[in-house]
Amino acid sequence: MISRGLRPLSIMSVIVLLAAACSSGSDDSPTATDSADSPTATESADSTAVESDSASQCTAEARAFIEPWTAEQELQVPTQQIDVSALAGQSYWLLLTVTNQFSGAIADGYRAAAEAAGVEAVVFDGKGTVTEWARGMDQAISQGAAGIVLWGIPPELVDAGVQKAKEAGIPVIDSVNGSVDDELQDGILAHVDVNAFEWGAVLANWMLAESDCNANVGVVWPPAFGGLDKIAHAVEDELAAKCPECKFVGADMDVANLATSLGGQARTMLTANPDLNFFTPLFDSAVTFVAPVIEQEFPDVQIGSHDGVDTSLQMVRDGGPQTMDMAYAPLDYLGWQLLSIQMGMATGLDPDPGLLRIPERLVTTANIPATDEEIFPAYANFEDAFKSAWGL
């Protein structure tokens, strides 16, 4: 286990004064000096009131911070017109970090969008290893891809392929790797993402609001993944700024062996730190491997996560152990979003500025609608907006 700025809860010392009962006028009665040195009932009450007021203010501020994120989101539509008839026969590549429930739903949307546009979609499973990611880049370039998306694959880890694509004139964009506003690496033409620092701050404030600013948090994440690393440290920093007494415990995640390692890792962390009341692996596909352990062995621990995978949303609906999710817009929408950006670039346009930010909404056991579709009601029939922008 690693500790990144570990901030253990302060332990308040309790002094108990024992006095023998005695009659009035006894030599054992407290002197004036004894009384002056001891806190009076009024002073103790005042101190408790100050602490209570501080906690109340912290909680109120945390609730106000997350409130805007719980609102329904407007439909985010293309701002560019694309003549997709000119792109017939082209192939567009979506390189996935690894195939799981989350990325698989994105890929399904990507394929559906390609079918509607009359182009070919190639989805490559990176299997969670740099070797496979590099192989995917080489295949896309050698087969003349019209565009490449690096989904969750840190561009710096496949830079040789990124440079080859640049030399071949193939536009490359990345997604869910950091923050939409991050500086672009050479050869990467756009980030399609959320703001990782905002999301980390939202997660921390939800924990503070939920616990009346008594949040002790365990986080497991893969530091090599830039976006997740930023989110984890944003949680740590926000807790330190708003609740110095709160605890943050971090550990590295073994992405390639989640199914066999993550449940045991959660158990070890929570056993060693019995005061933890929140745990997060930061993304929903990983929750699958820790939820059974937490539900059966640590029922007082809540899980908060991100992505909006249907099993996680149902868990929130059912009351736990995951009780909060920052849901992306419908995951198939994200596939259409990515392909639209790629096709626009293939016609010589800049990356569509109206599609670079991925829409999100915070749902908890208190506000989650009865169905997933109701989380983003404006996104019903979103395909029509894309088809209109593509001249279909």
Task: Describe the structure in your own words.
The protein is 42% helix and 14% strand. With 392 residues, it is an alpha/beta fold. It has two domains: 84-195 and 329-360 and 374-389, Rossmann fold, CATH 3.40.50.2300; 197-328, 3-Layer(aba) Sandwich (Rossmann fold), CATH 3.40.50.2300. The strands form two sheets. Strands 7-6-8-9-10-11 form a six-stranded mixed beta sheet, with helices on both faces. Helix 9 links the parallel strand 8 (278-280) and strand 9 (302-307).
Task: Compile the SSE list and pairings.
Layout: H1 32-37, H2 41-66, E1 91-96, H3 101-117, E2 120-125, H4 130-142, E3 147-151, H5 159-167, E4 172-175, E5 191-192, H6 196-211, E6 216-221, H7 226-242, E7 247-252, H8 258-272, E8 278-280, H9 284-297, E9 302-307, H10 310-318, E10 322-328, H11 331-346, E11 360-364, H12 383-389
Parallel strand pairs: 1-2, 1-3, 3-4, 4-5, 6-7, 6-8, 8-9, 9-10
Antiparallel strand pairs: 10-11
Round the mean pLDDT to the nearest integer and report it.
Answer: 88
Number of helices: 12
CATH topology of the largest domain: Rossmann fold
Helix-residue proportion: 40-55%
Shape: globular
Q: Estimate the strand proportion.
A: 5-15%
Q: Can you identify the CATH class of the largest domain? A: Alpha Beta
- Give me the side-by-side strand order of the main sheet: 7-6-8-9-10-11
Supply Rg.
Answer: 26 Å
**By helix and strand content, what is the structural category?**
alpha/beta
Q: How many strands appear in the DSSP assignment?
A: 11
Oligomeric state of the chains present here: single chain
